[in-house]
């Protein structure tokens, strides 16, 4: 995609079982590959300093900390660098690199996001071939993971990058005055993602056909103890009252007036983009929808692997609770060893249980910037992401609340993964997640459906709002009031 190649650099770091991202490696991966080494090093150090000074940006670095693509408001935003030791030559060089990189990504003929979408179709074919084969369970696990990495995770990473650029492009149209906030929300409501299709299919498909298509989804994508939709369908959907479920949104076209259309045409020429207005919006729509489609497809490989791990354990007298302590690397090693599988698994489970006890006894901050943070820290107060301009007043419930109490309620859910799409079949009034960024799956879904939502509230706000009985959320003004 035109960024620095950080392959083989460990991105995820394990602190006594708690996962952390190496921010320096991550920030390096957002620097265009043609930026000179000396400038790149100064940029990375500036990004790190800005994050340390503003830890609340840890879940929105692509919008608030780093310059990872060219947008229509970049010439104004990038002047911030001149306040921190960068000169006009530095900013001009970075601007040129970002424009060239972005132009290559949004291209509707040669853009890598188009080829990455095609790879997902290959993954689907390989999924079906493996699952229908007479391979041993451990062999199916191994090849599903290998194919997922090559044809699923890598294309998703590319499409996720393209999706971020698409959203940043849209936000920059608001910043330069071509879009209003309502225009932005209106465009997001025209998106047709897998989740939109699911809402329509819930009404039109038979129960068995629906579960065959969407049954692999599970809340907490990596959690073996969380049932898939097809393992506990009645836990997620009220099949007897399907006609009373919220009507799926009607697809609508986004119409841009003649005046802003002409302004945008001029803006593209002014910023030296080869694309025309239709090409730009084709990329924005395709990248955002493609990102959601990619997550849906590669999560099937993950879900099938997790189910097969459960079957592997069952064949050896081990339940899912015990298998939850295993290590995926150890399981993949079973494919190429003559060691007794049962003894190997039991040893891994015992190690996992010990490690889990250690993890339960440790608390660490979400952002570690110095060694002393491990011993003494305060939980930072996040800056939540408010989605849409909507308002909602409702009773606060959680994912374990009886389904008949979900209508018009404000639902608290821990994460923003696709497995929680079942909540949209219950006419909720709004929702709040503890984790998730401004461009996460649930943020896209909220914008697409026009549902007021707060994504990535952080631990402090999530606990505080979760204890309330009634909340008043005003996303347009970024306010939350506890009414009871």
Task: Write structural notes for this entry.
The chain is an alpha/beta fold and 484 residues long. It is built from 18 helices and nine strands. The strands form two sheets. A seven-stranded mixed sheet has the order 3-7-6-5-4-8-9. α6 packs antiparallel against α7 (137-175) and α7 runs antiparallel to α13. It starts with 11 loop residues before the first strand and ends with a strand.
Q: What is the strand and helix layout of this fold?
A:
Blueprint: E1 12-15, E2 18-21, H1 23-28, H2 37-53, H3 61-64, H4 74-77, H5 88-106, H6 112-132, H7 137-175, H8 181-188, H9 194-204, H10 207-214, H11 233-236, H12 258-270, H13 277-314, H14 320-323, H15 328-333, H16 341-360, E3 385-387, E4 391-398, E5 410-413, E6 430-433, H17 441-449, E7 453-455, H18 458-466, E8 470-474, E9 479-482
Parallel strand pairs: 4-5, 5-6, 6-7
Antiparallel strand pairs: 1-2, 3-7, 4-8, 8-9
Helix pairs in contact: 6-7, 6-13, 7-13
């Amino acid at each position: 995609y035109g960024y620095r190649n950080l392959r083989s650099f460990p991105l995820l770091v394990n602190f006594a079982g708690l996962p952390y991202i190496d921010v320096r490696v991550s920030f390096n991966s957002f620097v265009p590959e043609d930026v000179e080494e000396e400038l790149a090093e100064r940029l990375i150090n500036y990004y790190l300093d800005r994050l340390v000074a503003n830890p609340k940006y840890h879940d929105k670095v692509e919008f608030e900390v780093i310059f990872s693509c060219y947008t229509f408001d970049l010439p104004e935003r990038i002047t911030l660098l001149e306040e921190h030791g960068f000169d006009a030559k530095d900013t001009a060089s970075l601007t040129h690199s970002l424009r060239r990189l972005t132009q290559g990504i949004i291209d509707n003929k040669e853009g890598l996001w188009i080829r990455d979408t095609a790879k997902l179709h290959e993954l689907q074919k390989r999924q079906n071939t493996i699952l229908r084969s007479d391979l041993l369970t451990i062999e199916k696990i191994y090849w599903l993971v290998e194919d997922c990495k090559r044809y699923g995770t890598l294309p998703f990473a590319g499409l996720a990058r393209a999706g971020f650029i698409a959203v940043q492009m849209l936000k920059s149209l608001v910043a330069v005055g071509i879009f209003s906030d309502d225009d932005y929300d209106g465009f997001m409501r025209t998106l047709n993602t897998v989740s939109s299709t699911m809402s329509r299919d819930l009404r039109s498909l038979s129960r068995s056909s629906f579960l065959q298509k969407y049954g692999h989804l599970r809340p907490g994508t990596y959690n073996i103890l969380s049932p898939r939709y097809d393992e506990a369908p009645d836990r997620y959907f009220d099949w007897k009252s399907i006609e009373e479920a919220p009507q799926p949104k009607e697809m609508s076209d986004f119409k841009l007036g003649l005046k802003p259309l002409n302004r945008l045409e001029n803006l593209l020429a002014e910023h030296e983009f080869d694309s025309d207005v239709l090409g730009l919006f084709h990329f924005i729509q395709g990248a955002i929808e493609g990102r959601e489609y990619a997550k849906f497809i590669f999560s099937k490989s993950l879900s099938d692997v997790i189910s097969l791990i459960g079957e592997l354990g069952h064949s050896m007298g081990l339940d899912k609770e015990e298998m939850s302590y295993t290590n995926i690397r150890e399981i993949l090693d079973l494919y190429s060893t003559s060691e007794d599988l049962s003894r190997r698994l039991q040893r891994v489970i015992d190690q996992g249980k010990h490690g889990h006890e250690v993890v339960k006894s440790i608390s660490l901050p979400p952002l570690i910037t110095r060694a002393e943070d491990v011993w003494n820290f305060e939980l930072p107060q996040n800056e939540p992401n408010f989605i849409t301009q909507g308002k909602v007043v409702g009773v606060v419930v959680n994912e374990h609340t009886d389904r008949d109490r979900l209508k018009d309620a404000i639902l608290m859910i821990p994460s923003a993964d696709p497995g929680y799409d079942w909540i949209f079949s219950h006419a909720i009034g709004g929702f709040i997640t503890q984790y998730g960024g401004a461009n996460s799956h649930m943020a896209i879904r909220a914008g697409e459906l026009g549902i007021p939502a707060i994504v990535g509230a952080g631990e402090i706000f999530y606990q505080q709002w979760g204890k309330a009985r009634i909340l008043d959320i005003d996303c347009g003004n970024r306010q939350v009031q506890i009414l009871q």
